[in-house]
Specification:
The chain is α/β, with parallel strands linked by helices and 732 residues long. Helix content is 45%, strand content 15%. Strand 6, helix 11 and strand 7 form a beta-alpha-beta unit.
Length: 732
């Protein structure tokens, strides 16, 4: 067998991993080291060299995008169509299992997936139905609690309140929510995983069938698995089926949503006789960037150990800017960005600004708007998450299943048809009291004349419309079903009567939904045996639950560090590097959380290919007050010889005397040398104001008498003053 096409493109470490024996194997793949290539070539190796059928392979990853890319690359390498091969996300594979075994899983055959937005809406109704105050028991918090319990494999019956009143009430909410889902045939994302795990646990015959079927299991991003995903994999693997896992413990950054770095650290203990491989050659970044990342992550304990390297050049140093405040930081980034664009052949979409908190984007957006720099906040609403699209999908779901409570409540008065909140509340309460779905409750209410004539007519017209739509679309092609729904429901006309740009965009989105339906292919692998509409609705729900963004236009990318994982850019700005912000204040006292923050910084650094610019602010306004946090401890963990400071680091200290408000003195060569308009006023200097008293100059904007100065006064706090009218006296 000629293995040249499979092994030739690989380096030595990659070849060893791809061609290893069929025993459990863990590949520690550093950032930019070619982990996807290894997974793809391992599948090809198993098929072409070992002689394994592609249909006896299960390949699991975390995003639909990654699964689609992997499939395309395997098909290209094998020159073969692999339709029917089980390759997808944990949620997608779980959904496929449950569709095939809906009876054994105690589900309705027509069960629908509940996305996160609809889950919260359903939770609100459950909480209201229990007579609880939703300000004390927020739906979002209840959803988080329930999802986290499901991720640990727990049902309400498995849980104890341990005498905690709050825990007791949350368990009751969980039980009521579970009952509501079962009544209407709804399954949330966490339920997909838990229900499929329970299916395998409680039905040994089904487990044995899939253990026989899947002789080889490959897993991407293994460090991101949570407790239930790990159990799921171990069950399917059993004692005979080897797992080939690829991941990086240094990039485990999702602990807040249940990911357990211990899963990858314990792999060798849990899978006996396993082999360990390390991919350390990086094909993305310069040696300087990699050296900084290696030095930083070395400060974490319990690592599996690896050191990234490249045979490329050192590249430019890492630039560090110590800004006076967040406005100065944003202006510096804008200036540096424009200079880079002017002096290189780079594009704006080659640039990313990474920050710890979403709130940090605002000041960059303001500066970019003022300087006409096109930008995009990465991670905005995806197509299937937009309100008008969710309305259309709700019509389609209700046309398929009138007992779908969330869909009923979402569209009963969309477009407006005279069904007010009081009517909806009556239907909801009646349904709760009589253990009915909202559709069944509405039927009973109409029969018993509990509503005024006007409200009764409006509700009856809506229900008649849904019955009519259900009949009319039953024999149509998928795209025709979608088109008929958006037209006949009145959604297009509703948005079309508004001349605004936003309304026009909504009509275009609805029309795009028809296009999406026309191009949708019922993939046997994911939607085997499902009618086209059911498959399309499932596809929409799974896509809405995935946080990947679409291909961007030529504009600067603003995003959180979490959103940046898996991406890379020639130029990266890593901003807001202050203790209390990054690492966050909550993490600094907990070693485990601090180590995850350090891994997050490591991820940020390794997104940069050619140039990395870091910055921090000596003063940052947050939550209505000025904070004076020290530079991030992560900066001190990067060797100084790798860093070029754009300006000398200013030293910020408290004054030697006490005062009623924090007063700052700033000492640095640039700060002490910059006088404003020969007035003697300088950044870092002390001034006095007739009304506000003494203070320190933190920043300035503009020139001449129209210049504005930012002064932090000891008793009055921070003020922006116009120099011409402030009458400031220089003290020092």
């Amino acid at each position: 067998m000629d293995v040249t096409p499979i092994l030739d493109p690989l380096n030595e470490a990659q070849r060893e991993a791809v061609s290893c024996d069929t025993v459990p194997a863990l590949v520690i793949a550093g950032a930019g080291s070619g982990k996807t290539r290894v997974l793809v070539h391992r599948i090809a190796w198993l098929c072409e060299v070992v002689g394994v059928s592609p249909f006896s392979i299960l390949a699991v990853t975390f995003t639909n995008k990654a699964a689609a890319e992997m499939r395309a690359r395997v098909e290209e390498l094998l020159n073969n169509n692999l339709a029917g091969m089980w390759m997808g996300t944990f949620h997608g594979i779980s959904h496929r299992l449950l569709r095939a075994h809906w009876q054994e899983a105690n589900l309705k055959q027509s069960f629908q997936i509940l996305d996160s937005g609809d889950q919260i809406r359903l939770m609100k109704r459950v909480i209201q139905g229990m007579g609880l105050d939703d300000t004390k028991w927020p739906a979002k918090n209840a959803c988080w609690f329930i999802n986290s319990q499901k991720e640990e494999g727990l049902r309400p019956k498995d849980m104890s309140d341990n005498g905690d009143i709050t825990q007791r009430q949350l368990i009751k909410i969980y039980a009521a929510y579970q009952e509501a889902c079962e009544q209407t045939g709804l399954v949330d994302f966490a339920e997909l995983l838990l229900r499929s795990l329970e299916l395998l646990k409680h039905r040994p015959d089904i487990l044995a069938h899939y253990q026989t079927k899947f002789r080889h299991i490959l897993v991407d991003e293994f460090q991101d698995t949570n407790s239930i995903q790990y159990q799921w994999l171990k069950l399917l693997a059993g004692e005979q089926n080897p797992i080939f896992a690829v991941g990086d413990d240094d990039q485990s950054i999702y602990g807040w949503r249940g990911a357990r770095v211990e899963n990858i650290q314990n792999f060798e203990r849990d899978f006996k006789g396993s082999q360990l491989f390390k991919l350390e050659q990086n094909y993305r970044s310069t040696n300087t960037i990699l050296s900084a990342a290696n030095s930083l992550i070395d400060n974490n304990h319990g690592r599996m150990g690896k050191k990234l390297w490249t045979d490329g050049d050192d590249g430019e140093p890492i630039y560090l800017y110590a800004s006076f405040n967040e406005q100065d930081e944003a202006r510096f980034v804008a200036d540096k960005l424009k200079h880079w664009l002017d002096t290189t052949s780079g594009r704006r979409d080659d640039v990313a600004i990474l920050y710890r908190s979403n709130a940090q984007s605002r000041v960059f957006e303001e500066v970019f708007i003022s300087q006409s720099i096109p930008y995009r906040v990465y991670g905005g609403l995806r197509f299937f998450e937009r309100a008008e699209i969710k309305d259309a999908l709700a019509y389609l779901r209700l046309a398929k299943n009138v007992d779908d409570n969330p869909s009923f409540e979402r569209i009963v008065n969309v477009p407006t048809r005279g069904i007010g909140q009081r009517t909806v509340a009556l239907v909801r309460d009646f349904a709760k009291e009589h253990q009915l779905t909202m559709w069944q409750a509405a039927e009973k209410i109409l029969q018993s004349s509990l509503l005024a004539a006007r409200a009764s007519n409006a509700l009856a017209q809506f229900m008649n419309l849904m019955v009519k739509l259900s009949k009319e679309i039953s024999e149509l092609e998928l795209s025709e079903q979608v088109d008929h729904i958006i037209q006949t429901s009145g959604l297009v006309a509703h948005h079309g009567k508004d001349a605004s740009e936003k309304a026009k965009s909504r009509v275009e989105n609805l029309e795009e939904l028809v296009v999406a339906a026309r191009g949708f292919v019922v993939d046997n692998e994911l939607y085997e045996g499902m009618p086209p509409l059911d498959a399309f609705l499932t596809h929409a729900a799974l896509e809405a639950g995935e946080g990947q963004g679409a291909k961007w236009d030529d504009c600067v990318q603003l995003m959180t560090l979490h959103a940046a994982k898996g991406l890379e850019f020639p130029l990266v700005f890593l901003v807001g590097l202050e203790d209390g912000l990054f690492p966050s204040s909550m993490s600094m006292e907990e070693p485990g959380r601090l180590e995850e923050e350090r891994r997050l910084c490591y991820v940020g650094i390794t997104r940069a290919r050619k140039q990395l610019v870091m910055s921090y602010a000596e003063s940052r306004r947050q939550y209505g007050s000025d904070n004076y946090n020290p530079p991030s401890r992560f900066l001190s963990e990067i060797p100084s010889e790798l860093i070029a400071e754009v300006r000398p680091r200013a030293k910020v200290t408290q004054p030697r005397y006490q005062s009623s408000a924090p007063s700052m003195m700033i000492n640095g060569s640039r700060a002490n040398s910059e006088a404003l308009n020969d007035t003697g006023i300088k950044i870092g200097g002390r001034v006095a104001h007739a009304k506000f008293g003494e203070g320190v100059v933190l920043d300035c904007e503009g020139k001449g008498n129209s210049a504005r100065v930012h002064v932090h006064f000891e008793s009055a706090g921070s003020k922006w003053l116009v120099l011409a009218y402030a009458n400031l006296n220089v003290i020092a």
